[in-house]
Write a structure and sequence with these properties.
Two copies of one chain form a homodimer.
Chain A: E1 6-12, H1 16-28, E2 32-38, H2 42-51, E3 56-58, H3 61-65, E4 70-73, H4 80-87, E5 96-99, H5 104-111, E6 120-122, E7 124-126, E8 147-150, H6 158-170, E9 174-177, H7 180-206, H8 210-218, H9 224-230, H10 235-244, H11 246-269, H12 272-291
Parallel strand pairs in A: 1-2, 1-4, 2-3, 4-5, 5-6, 8-9
Antiparallel strand pairs in A: 7-8
Helix pairs in contact in A: 7-9, 7-11
Chain lengths: ~300, ~300
C-alpha cells in the first residue's frame, strides 16, 4: 500500500462527488490519512457519520479546513465565493486548495483572489457523476477510467498540480490539463447544453394538456426516457453551472437553436437531403465514439 | 403450443422490427406457420436466408404477399404509398394488411385508399426499437413488455383488429387503441422530437472548430454521449418519420424552441428561480416514470 498522499483531506460539501472521494480515501487509505467533511446541514453530517465515510465532521467550514494539507471544494459552484471567504483565514500554510466544479473560469474568478499567500490553488474537474445526489449516492468506482481536467492558473506551483493529479489517478481517473476558457467551452457543448436541453424538453412535455401529458409518461420508452435520466440531476448544482458558464453556454445554445430552426425549416419544406445528412452525422459521431471506446 | 395465428405472414421490409417479428414467428411458431420476407435489395434477402429467419424470400413485394393471410409493412413510412400500390393487386381476399410505422395519419392517408375491398387494414405501431438497424439486429425479446398501439380507422373489422392485437401479444407486447391523430401528437413529443434534437445537437457539435470538436468526442461521457446513442438510428427511417408527422412535430418543436429561448433568457439574466424550477420539473418527471416503472 502506498503512503497516503495527504495527512488530512477536508471535503467542503459531501454529496455525490465528495462522498465518492471520501469513500475512496477511507477504503484504500492512499489518498489521505484522515478525512474531515463539512456540509451545509447537520442532517447531512449526521448521515455522513452513520455511513462512516469521514473521520470527523464539522458544520463550520473554517474549522473543517484548519490543519488540513488538502482542501477540496465539492459544493455547487455558486457557493464558492462565500466558502472561499469563510475558509481563507483558516487555511494552513502550504495547503493545497482544489475543487471539483464544472465551470473553471468562474471558480478562478471567485476563489483565486481569496487564496492566501503560501496556499496553492489547483482547480480541477472530474468528468464523472450520475443523476443521483447526496452522501448516500457516492461509490468508489465513480472516477475509474474517467477524465479529470486540471486548469491551474499560470504560475501555480507544479508540485501542487502534480499532487492533485496523483490524487485523481489514485481515484482511477485519467488526467488532462486545459486552459480554463477552453475547458468551459468544451464542457458547454458536451455537458451543460445537453443538460439544459434535457431539462427544457421535460418542461415542454409537462406543459402539454392533461391527456397527452399522462401518455408522455406511459409511452416514454421511445426516446424521451433517455432525456429524463439526464434531467434527474440536482437542481441547485445545475442552476449554478448554467449561471457560471453563461457565455459559453449561451453561445452553444445559440448555435444549437439556429441548427434546430434549420431542421424545422427542412421538415416544413420537405428537404429530404438536409434531414438525411443531419441524421447521418449523428450516426457518424456515434461510430467515432465507439471507435474511441467512449460509448 | 398454440395454433399459429396465420398460415402465411409476409413481411415487406425485414430490418430491425421486421426481422424481430420473423425471429419470433420462426422460434415459437405461434404467429405464422410460414414466413415470407421481401426487401429492396438482394443482399438483404441473401442475408435473411443465411440467418434462416424466413421460409422464403421474394424481391418482388407483389409475389411476397400472394397467398399470405397477413401482410406486415416493415419498411420506412415514406415507401408505403409505392409499396401499397405494388402489392394491392396481389393481396388475397380476407387477408389482413398491417404495418409497424411510427406515423399513423400518413399511413392511413397513403395506404388506406389502395386497400382492395375484402382486405382488412389494421395500422399498428410497436413502441420498440434500438439504435441498430438491418436484419442482423433483430431479436426475439424486442417487444416484450413494450406497448403496441393500434389505430384502426372507423369501420375496421373487429375480428381483424383482434387478430393483430393477438399477434403483438404473442410477441410479448401490451396493446392500446388510439386515435391516429392523437397517436401522432403523443409520438411527436415522446419520440420524434427527442430524436430530432439528438440529431441536431450532434450536428452542432460536429460543426465546432477542429480543436473543440476532437475534444467533444474525447469528453463525450458527460451527457452528450446519451444523445449520440439516440442519434445513431437509421437515417432514411427517421427522415421519413419527420416528413410524415410534419405538423405534430413542428408544433412540438415550436413549443420546445420557445421554452429553450426562455431558458436562454433566464441564463442571460440570471433568473435563478426560473432555472431551478425547470430543473426540478425534469426531476419530478423522472420520479413519475420510476413510479410507473417505465425507467
Amino acid at each position: 500500500m502506498a503512503e497516503p498522499l495527504f495527512r488530512r483531506l477536508a471535503l467542503i460539501g459531501i454529496g455525490h462527488i465528495g462522498s465518492s472521494v471520501a469513500r475512496i480515501a477511507r477504503e484504500g487509505g492512499e489518498i489521505a490519512a484522515e478525512v474531515v467533511a463539512s456540509a451545509r446541514t447537520q442532517k447531512t453530517l449526521d448521515r455522513v457519520m452513520e455511513l462512516g465515510i469521514a473521520d470527523r465532521v464539522e458544520r463550520d467550514p473554517g474549522r473543517a479546513v484548519a490543519g488540513a494539507d488538502c482542501v477540496m471544494l465539492c459544493a455547487p459552484v455558486g457557493t464558492y465565493a462565500d466558502l472561499a471567504a469563510a475558509i481563507a483565514p483558516h487555511l494552513a500554510p502550504g495547503a493545497i486548495l482544489t475543487d471539483v466544479g464544472s465551470t473553471k473560469q468562474s471558480v478562478i474568478r471567485d476563489v483565486g483572489p481569496l487564496v492566501p499567500e503560501g496556499v496553492h490553488f489547483v482547480p480541477a474537474h472530474p468528468l464523472a457523476g450520475t443523476e443521483y445526489s447526496g452522501p448516500d449516492s457516492g461509490f468508489v468506482s465513480l472516477f475509474r477510467d474517467r477524465w479529470c481536467l486540471l486548469t491551474p492558473p499560470p504560475g501555480t506551483d507544479e508540485d501542487a498540480v502534480e499532487r492533485i493529479a496523483e490524487l485523481w489517478r489514485r481515484c482511477g481517473a485519467m488526467i488532462e490539463r486545459m486552459e480554463p476558457n477552453h475547458h468551459d467551452r468544451v464542457l458547454a457543448i458536451v455537458s451543460h447544453l445537453p443538460h439544459l436541453i434535457a431539462f427544457t424538453i421535460c418542461g415542454t412535455a409537462d406543459d402539454l394538456a392533461d391527456e397527452s401529458r399522462g401518455q408522455v409518461l406511459k409511452f416514454a420508452a421511445s426516446g424521451f426516457r433517455d432525456f429524463t435520466r439526464i434531467a434527474a440531476s440536482d437542481p441547485v448544482m445545475w442552476r449554478d453551472i448554467f449561471l457560471n458558464n453563461r457565455e459559453a453556454l449561451l453561445e452553444m445554445l445559440a448555435r444549437f437553436l439556429e441548427d434546430a430552426q434549420a431542421m424545422a425549416r427542412a421538415v416544413r419544406w420537405g428537404d429530404e437531403r438536409y434531414i438525411e445528412d443531419k441524421v447521418e452525422r449523428g450516426r457518424k459521431i456515434r461510430r467515432s465514439l465507439i471507435e474511441l471506446r467512449q460509448a
